[in-house]
């Protein structure tokens, strides 16, 4: 069992680029020093897993940025809220387990959505958390396939972190330029070096 040395917590609206930046960070950390020392933790993964098995749906399709996922997003959110109301850490603990977090010193949480998520990590890992807010203009998000959906884009899962502004890092991906992304990744790699994780 490895305790994480650093936990990157990415948040942002739908199609802001959270997953894109998380994957970039993972490949930079992992490609140079195999075996990989980082894992991506998707907090929505166990929710999708359990929702799919309870409702007879295809879990792998729910994981992709597909029409299938969009069709089920609204009901899945409602179901998740009910479970989370009983236990706010329910999906987080399962997500860490699903991503084999105990085997990796670097955790990349790609989809933090709620203040209760932030609170969980800050309470349990007070010295390891690095928060990253990812944003993009509505136009850029529309170009990536986003369409405002009532019950989704105005729900807690999208808006609960809107008032939080004390992020350790932030990035605007609207223009999708390489230089902006590389600058952020460089800063995050430095964070890893600062806690003794070997990256170049
Ligand atoms: N910085 C960027 N440069 C180029 N393309 C980007 C960038 N960020 C995101 N994209 C593209 O935008 C699309 C959506 O990005 P991504 O899946 O990372 O968003 P997300 O915030 O994880 O969305 P969701 O919450 O809906 O899962 C992807 O096709 C991705 O390749």
TrEMBL record:
Task: Give the subcellular location.
Answer: Cytoplasm, Cytosol
Give residues annotated as binding ATP: 13-19, 144, 175
Q: Which GO terms describe its cellular component?
A: cytosol
Keyword tags: ATP-binding, Cholesterol biosynthesis, Cholesterol metabolism, Cytoplasm, Kinase, Lipid biosynthesis, Lipid metabolism, Nucleotide-binding, Steroid biosynthesis, Steroid metabolism, Sterol biosynthesis, Sterol metabolism, Transferase
Biological processes, Gene Ontology terms: cholesterol biosynthetic process; isopentenyl diphosphate biosynthetic process, mevalonate pathway
The enzyme's E.C. designation: 2.7.4.2
Q: Which GO terms describe its molecular function?
A: ATP binding; phosphomevalonate kinase activity
Q: In which pathway does it act?
A: Isoprenoid biosynthesis; isopentenyl diphosphate biosynthesis via mevalonate pathway; isopentenyl diphosphate from (R)-mevalonate: step 2/3
Q: What is this protein called?
A: Phosphomevalonate kinase
Source organism of this protein record: Hyalella azteca
């Amino acid at each position: 069992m490895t305790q994480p040395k650093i936990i990157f917590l990415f948040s942002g609206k739908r199609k802001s680029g959270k997953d894109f930046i998380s994957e970039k960070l993972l490949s930079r950390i992992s490609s140079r020093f195999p075996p990989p020392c980082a894992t991506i933790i998707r907090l929505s993964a166990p929710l999708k897993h359990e929702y799919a098995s309870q409702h007879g749906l295809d879990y792998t399709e729910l994981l992709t940025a597909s029409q299938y996922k969009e069709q089920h997003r609204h009901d899945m959110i409602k179901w998740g809220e009910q479970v989370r109301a009983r236990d706010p850490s329910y999906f987080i603990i399962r997500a860490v387990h699903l991503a084999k977090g105990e085997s990796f010193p670097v955790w990349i949480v790609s989809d933090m959505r709620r203040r209760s998520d932030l609170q969980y990590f800050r309470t349990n890992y007070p010295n390891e958390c690095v928060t990253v807010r990812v944003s993009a203009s509505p136009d850029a998000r529309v170009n990536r396939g986003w369409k405002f959906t009532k019950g989704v884009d105005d729900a807690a899962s999208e808006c609960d972190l809107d008032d939080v502004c004390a992020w350790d890092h932030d990035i605007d991906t609207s223009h999708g330029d390489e230089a902006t992304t590389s600058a952020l990744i460089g800063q995050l790699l430095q964070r890893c070096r600062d806690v003794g994780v070997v990256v170049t």
